[in-house]
Amino acid sequence: MRIATWNVNSLKVRLPQLLDWLAVRAESAPVDVIGLQETKLTDEAFPGAELAAAGWHWVHAGQKTYNGVAIVSRWPLSEVQVGIPGFDDEQKRVIAATVATPDGPLRYVCVYVVNGQAVGSDKYAYKLRFLAALRDYLAAELAQHPKLAVGGDYNIAPSPSDTHDPAVWEGNILCSEPEREGFRALLALGLRDAFTLFEQPPNSFTWWDYRAAGFRRNLGLRIDHLLLSAPLAAACRSASADLAPRKFERPSDHTPFIAEIASPSS
DNA sequence: ATGCCTTCGCCTCGAAGA
Prior knowledge:
Blueprint: E1 2-7, H1 11-26, E2 33-37, H2 48-53, E3 57-61, E4 69-73, E5 77-82, E6 94-101, E7 104-112, H3 122-144, E8 148-153, H4 166-169, H5 177-187, E9 192-193, E10 207-208, E11 220-221, E12 224-228, H6 230-235, E13 236-241, E14 257-261
Parallel strand pairs: 1-2, 7-8
Antiparallel strand pairs: 1-14, 2-4, 3-4, 5-6, 6-7, 8-12, 9-12, 10-11, 13-14
Helix pairs in contact: 3-5
The structure holds one DNA strand.
């Protein structure tokens, strides 16, 4: 089984790419569950019929223009939770569901963490509040669901090596110590960053700026992550970004990150 | 280079992203 996360930067624009990419991968290395961020669609405008016609189950929590999160799955979804309980937020940044996989229930929490704009700004304060609330929420999810995956755009590069140029990024937004502390607090719950379970090539990123030919020059950041509870981390066989979608015509600025989880029998 | 690109809205530029 493969689980993934992808910030599509408008599902309206990226739906054909998503369907094509899932179909192509299905022939060799199928993605079975994927969390999407920045759908930028209201629930009314969500292309549920197209996804269902292609055989996918889905849940979505969206709004106009900004944010919007979805889970798309080969298997049925249940116990849907929109937003962080007790955290009052108009912005649609969190959706969770239980996936009925052949290996038993898997809980997937899909998150689009606040960008934060600039260290010290109001949006930065909101980002730190969001991260604190997310930590408490994930503690409760972990207590209920042994097999928990938290996939999303965290808008945090966990370490200097997760940036193309630490001299440019260290201390700035996405790379400040309080943000990284917020990320480490999620790991401290008992979650593992799937990327760090394996030896990885240097300069492995998930986002590249549209400007200045960022992708061609590999001037990127690793800010999209899949966090796995202990049972899932123990069964994880590989974890890496798939760069193919970033090479599509009119691509998202993010590319999918995928973790392969072994079945109990294999 | 405080730049570069891409998205959306009611809009032909501004705001936001990261």
